[in-house]
Design goal:
The complex is a heterotrimer of chains A (about 260), B (about 300) and C (about 350). Chain A has about 260 residues and is mainly α. Helices cover about 80% and strands about 0% of the residues of chain A. Chain A starts with a helix and ends with a helix. Chain A has a domain at about 60-220: MetI-like (MetI-like fold, Orthogonal Bundle). Chain B contains 14 helices and two strands. Chain B has helices at about 1-10, 20-25, 30-55, 65-75, 75-110, 110-125, 130-140, 145-155, 165-190, 195-205, 210-235, 240-245, 255-260, 265-290, and strands at about 60, 60-65. Chain B has a two-stranded antiparallel sheet. In chain B, strand 1 (about 60) and strand 2 form a beta hairpin. In chain C, about 45% of the residues lie in helices and about 20% in strands. In chain C, about 50% of the residues are buried. In chain C, helix 2 (about 40-60) runs antiparallel to helix 11, helix 4 crosses helix 13 (about 330-345) and helix 6 (about 170-180) packs across helix 7 (about 195-205). In chain C, helix 2 links the parallel strand 1 (about 30-35) and strand 2. Chain C is globular and about 60 Å long. Chain C has two domains: about 30-130 and about 260-315, Periplasmic binding protein-like II (D-Maltodextrin-Binding Protein, domain 2, 3-Layer(aba) Sandwich); about 130-255 and about 320-345, Periplasmic binding protein-like II (D-Maltodextrin-Binding Protein, domain 2). In chain C, strands 1, 2, 3, 4, 5, 6, 7, 8 and 9 form a nine-stranded mixed beta sheet that branches. The longest helix of chain C has 22 residues, at about 1-25. Classes of the chains: A mainly alpha (about 260), B mainly alpha (about 300), C alpha/beta (about 350).
């Protein structure tokens, strides 16, 4: 009983900023005060009509997609190596794969900034994708390793014994079984890139402004509830993307039965 | 398992196997699975970091130890390091205190659907930019903010409670950001604990509380340790949240590093500070690995 | 099915991204490009109307705007040899500090005409673009037009004018305010008595709720009443006021600083950059700029072009309260040591 109460309070704590943010995006004044004064859609208008905000929005989505793809590829290789191969220094390898997550972000940001400068990788999409990927790899690696460990490798041996080539084994046997882990890993990598601010502050420039950077600049230059509007759109986009697969499942189920 | 034999019969080192076949083994696609990620991480992470740390002992005038000595001897830097560790510790503690009951609650839920929903709810803040989450806290914690208005309305206080632009604000903001990490870690460990063990203990006569403390809790410790270490290390690296929510006193190493990179342009000092931060992280990790040396996750199968 | 959709989507995004980056580079017959770096937000909007667009038309050039000015990036660019910026708007003291670090090109005063510009704003490597004031700002719900802090001593008087304070987390401006509050005469302000300034700051420190770092923070703090009084950039506070925020500026004892134009060493379009700076220094352009935002011109010949109303708003009319121009050279010489002491003082 008490447990439920505590749990609900903690959940409320977690969701509080969101609950505050959404009404705030409809405020009619240009500063942040709660409860919001008046009702207005002008901050949404501000965002949707602002070419720069929209550009940043899609750029962020693009970088996040590329990051997710690259991180999952590299992460899968690493997880497969760790769970299906025997080699020396495996523990060191695993530590290296997880390293970017435990090195303080600011160090990574500064180090990359310094490193990219002579390589002219600053202010490029490539630079951003590479840096976001390295930040996403640890969590992809951890997720996929956990997922792969749960898969019985005897089935793969059986398939290989029956004549299936390695790629076939991977795509037809392993992949279907780790789908949930794969999906989670993809999602985590996507979020990591979408939300990345610390390293991106150092590495981005005019041509490569991402959405978090646009918000950061807005907070420094001209704080308006537009950022609340943008965030609300992101939240609802997220919730919808969570719900869509569920909806599809329901639809398919009905089709099959009916 | 078939694979284990390859340890003994590694075709590359076996002299009886012809050279070309040995070569094929080295460039065997399987090794790419190791080399590619390894190369990626080394090139994108470690080389830049080594470059950065070089700066801490080299400036325009050549090799010098003055920045490192500065960091270790001047009181202001020691103060900042201490404050950073203190904040990270307090954040970790509050995350743990909040995460444990919630994780336990989720684990005990009967409906898997409900479990999924709650876990997804917990993940939603991840989708909002760190900046905006931090900024929302300003709105909530400020003098005319949500919390103070509510407390005033309920008659609990007359003057607004100072929850912002001080350490309290930093703690609240950072706990909020890092809580999901702790919950996920603790929950996944808890989920793996065999509940039959607790049931058996109760069948044998132990009261529920005793069964919990003597069976369940010890088994959940690996989750507590890994979650705490993760949160602690992440807390060391944040600078945006403390700079937006904190007061003059709340200066963390990361803020100082960022300031030296962007304002005072003293990159050698920034590098020296980064080196210190990195060493602290390594020490902590070493400690964790030592404590968890018997944990199954670290064992190879 | 899901895989196919995600595959198509990601391909589409990929193409979009690569398309974006390549299209901006295949502009061979396009007019020349000049990269200008400024502070962003309202500053950029106003500059676009009064400076950038007229310049683009006159010289058939496209101006690319980068914001905000980032000193760290400036240095990184110079170190890597990959100079992407042509003209940068910086704090006046950075114009001198940066010169010491060899970051700028020397300005060609044959191209840049300076008649009318106060000598204080001209140096070998930088020229003042506009002045801004660090002024006493207050929340109009707490204080009104007749009863509000009018001097820095008033700001230090927390009994007569209660409420929290906010200052910039920056020694420049804060130390001067502290000395004026302590009774130092404006014309005897520089060179700053640093010890006395810190002693004076000790008195107000308990009341300072927030040390702001970004220009937009102060107006937000004042609007909600989180602080009742602040030392803030007048332009920001007045812009917020225009949009309806309950706050206002008191120009008396405001401290005047200038922003400066500098050219990074090795800038790709150096000559065009000089022409640009010249254009922005003319009385006409400066007047247009000051009409749109509450920053005063550095070229005194621009003042007659402004209406009395605007001049009052800028604090430049003869009836205006006394403002004090800061000694940039002193700050350039002493910034590093004073800033180090200031950072330590904050942590006490």
């Amino acid at each position: 009983m008490w447990l439920a109460i505590i749990a609900i309070l903690v959940l409320l704590f977690i969701l509080l900023p969101i609950l505050v943010l959404i009404p705030l995006s409809f405020t009619s004044v240009n500063y942040f005060t709660f409860p919001p004064i008046g009702f207005s859609m002008k901050w949404y208008q501000d965002f949707l009509q602002n070419k720069e905000w929209i550009e940043c929005f899609f750029r962020s989505l693009g970088v996040a997609a590329l990051t997710a793809i690259l991180a999952v590829i590299i992460g899968t290789f690493a997880s497969m190596a760790v769970t299906r191969m025997n080699f020396k220094y495996k523990k060191a390898f695993m530590a290296l794969m997880v390293a970017p997550m435990v090195i303080p972000v600011v160090i990574i940001g500064v180090a990359l900034y310094n490193f990219y400068a002579p390589l002219r990788l600053n202010n490029t999409i490539l630079g951003l994708v590479l840096s976001h990927t390295l930040l996403a790899i640890p969590i992809v690696f951890i997720t996929l390793t956990a997922g792969l460990k749960g898969v019985d490798s005897n089935i793969e041996l059986a398939a290989a014994g029956l004549g299936s080539k390695p790629f076939g084994v991977f795509f037809k046997i392993i992949l279907p079984q780790i789908k949930p882990s794969m999906l989670s890993a993809c999602l985590f990598a996507f979020i990591t890139s979408l939300d990345e601010i610390t390293v991106t502050i150092f590495l981005s420039g005019t041509d490569t402004k991402t959405l978090p950077i646009a918000m950061w600049e807005s907070l420094r230059n001209n704080i308006t509830p537009t950022i609340a509007a943008v965030s609300t759109i992101l939240i609802f986009g997220t919730i919808i993307s969570f719900l869509l697969p569920e909806l599809f499942k329901q639809l398919f189920r009905k089709k099959k039965m009916g | 398992m078939l694979r284990e034999n390859s340890k003994v019969d590694n075709g590359v080192h076996n002299k009886h196997v012809p050279f070309f076949i040995r070569l094929k083994k080295i460039v065997d696609p399987k090794w790419i699975m190791i080399l590619l990620p390894l190369a990626f991480i080394l090139i994108t992470t470690f080389i830049p970091m080594i470059n950065l740390f070089k700066l801490s002992v080299v400036d325009e005038n050549g090799f010098t130890l003055k920045y490192l000595t500065q960091v270790f001897t001047q009181q202001i830097y020691l103060q900042v390091i201490f404050l950073t560790l203190k904040i990270a510790f307090l954040v970790t503690l509050s995350c743990l205190v909040l995460a444990y009951p919630v994780s336990y609650f989720i684990v005990k839920l009967k409906s898997p659907k409900l479990k999924k929903v709650i876990l997804q709810l917990i993940m939603i803040p991840f989708w909002i930019s760190l900046l905006v989450r931090t900024f929302s806290w300003i709105v909530v914690l400020q003098d005319q903010g949500v919390i103070n208005s509510m407390l005033k309305y309920m008659g609990i206080i007359d003057k607004p409670a100072p929850l912002l632009f001080n350490t309290a604000g930093v703690l609240i903001g950072m706990t909020h950001v890092l809580l999901p990490y702790m919950i996920l870690n603790v929950y996944s460990t808890m989920e793996g604990i065999d509940r039959n063990l607790v049931q058996v203990a109760q069948v044998m006569g132990a009261k529920p509380t005793r069964a919990f403390w003597e069976i369940f809790f010890p088994l959940s410790i690996p989750g507590i340790l890994s979650g705490s270490m993760l949160v602690f290390i992440l807390a060391l690296g944040y600078f945006i949240t403390p700079s937006l929510l904190g007061g003059a006193h709340d200066m963390t190493i990361s803020m100082l590093i960022q300031n030296n990179i962007s304002n005072t342009l003293n990159w050698s000092l920034a590098s020296a500070l980064s080196l210190i931060l990195f060493l602290i992280t390594l020490v902590l990790l070493g400690g964790l690995l030592f404590l968890m040396r018997n944990h199954p996750a670290l064992k190879e199968d | 099915m899901k895989k196919i959709i995600t595959g198509i989507l990601s391909l589409g995004l990929l193409l979009n991204l690569t398309g974006c980056s390549s299209s901006s580079k295949t502009a061979t017959n396009a007019p020349k490009e000049l990269v200008v770096v400024d502070w962003g937000g309202n500053y950029t909007d106003v500059s676009k109307k009064s400076r950038y667009e007229p310049f683009e038309k006159k010289y058939n050039v496209t101006i690319k705007i980068v914001s905000p000015t980032d000193y760290g990036k400036f240095k990184a660019m110079e170190q890597s040899g990959n100079i992407e910026w042509d003209v940068v708007n910086v704090d006046a003291d950075f114009a001198i500090r940066g010169a010491k670090e060899n970051l700028f090109e020397k300005l060609d005063y044959n191209i840049i005409k300076t008649d009318g510009v106060d000598k204080k704003f001209i140096s070998d490597y930088g020229i003042g673009s506009e002045t801004f004031a660090v002024a006493i700002s207050y929340n109009t719900k707490t204080f009104n037009a007749s009863n509000h802090p009018k001097t820095w001593s008033d700001v230090w008087d927390t009994k007569k004018f209660p409420g929290a304070r906010s200052f910039q987390k920056y020694a420049e401006g804060t130390l001067e305010a502290a000395l004026l509050a302590d009774g130092v005469a404006p014309d005897k302000l520089f060179p700053l008595d640093v010890d006395r300034a810190f002693a004076s700051l000790d008195k107000i420190k308990p009341s300072v709720k927030s040390w702001w770092t970004a220009g937009a923070q102060a107006p937000q703090l004042l609007a909600t009443g989180e602080v009742s009084t602040a030392a803030a950039w007048s332009g920001r506070v007045l812009a917020a006021k225009k949009q309806g925020s309950p706050e206002n500026v008191e120009y008396n004892q405001a401290l005047i600083y200038a922003d400066s134009w500098v050219i990074p060493k090795g800038a790709p379009n150096k000559d065009l950059a000089m022409k640009f700076i010249n254009y922005c220094t003319t009385a006409q352009t400066q007047a247009e700029f000051s009409k749109l935002v509450d920053y005063a011109p550095t070229n005194s010949k621009a003042l007659p072009l402004l209406s009395e109303e605007i001049k009052t708003r800028l604090g430049q009319s003869t009836n205006s309260a006394k403002q004090i121009v800061a000694d940039i050279q002193w700050w350039a010489d002493n910034f590093n040591s004073v800033d180090a002491r200031f950072q330590k003082w904050l942590l006490k």
